[in-house]
Amino acid sequence: MKKTLPHFWSFDRLTDASLVKTEDIIWQGPFSWIGYEQVNKLKPIPDIAGVYFFTFEYKDGYILRSVGVTSSMKRRFREHTREYNKGNYTVLDVESAKNGVRKELWHGWQYAKEHQQQFLEYEDVILELIEKELIAYRIFITEIADRRKRERIEATLLINTYSSKESWADLIDGGMSLRGRYNNEIPIEIKNICPHKLYGLPETIEI
User: Could you name the domain of life of the organism this protein comes from (predicted)?
Assistant: First the structure.
């Protein structure tokens, strides 16, 4: 008997366009970074699964600094706080960032791993700068229960930012690990709804 390979389906825009659905997602915020609610007089982050933005106040709205996904906002932000305080994340000058300018005060990621002694030498100064940045952050979130949808939204937003020629796009750290739509997944048209202007959040995206 002749062996038959399994059938592998991939989305074809020419023949499968009718399968594409449209969804609205609601962005809530701004919220405070966990632990600084009394300082900046903002509401605490709800403990939900979803996609989140770090932003700074900028012009008539907010400017995108980072995008992430999680199954628990509170757990993920506690993890972020620990990583910041260990010197593993890049720290920006807040006033420059609020003007759309990336001015690094400490470089995280691989540099931080290779220069731990340097971090320890300036730890007190760097921790003060970190706290200033965390206080300045304005967090926006959208509740998304499905893990793959969260990943696809994150990937699309970051790829959009990486390809942007706008000056604010430079605030985003490059080299993030992304998991966009696979060929066997049907695209989804997303309409982003937010009561505030978020520089870096398109009105519509396809994930």
Answer: Bacteria
pLDDT in tens, 145-187: 999 999 999 999 999 999 999 888 999 998 888 999 999 999 9
Token representation of residue 88: 């593993």
User: 105 CB contacts (<8 Å, ≥6 apart)?
Assistant: 91, 92, 93, 126, 129
Tokens in use for 150? 């969260």
- Residue-by-residue DSSP string for 147-181: HHHHHHHHHHHHHHHHT--SGGGGGSPS-------
Domain boundaries, the chain: 25-206
**CA separation for the pair 57, 141 (Å, rounded):** 16
Contact 27, 142 (CB under 8 A): yes
Contact 148, 112 (CB under 8 A): no
The answer to whether 150 and 50 are in contact (CB under 8 A) is yes
Global pTM reads 0.93
- Under DSSP, the state recorded for 115 is T
pLDDT digits (tens, 9 = 90+) for 32-50: 999 999 999 999 999 999 9
Smallest CA-to-CA distance from 126 within 111, 148, 141, 140 is with 111
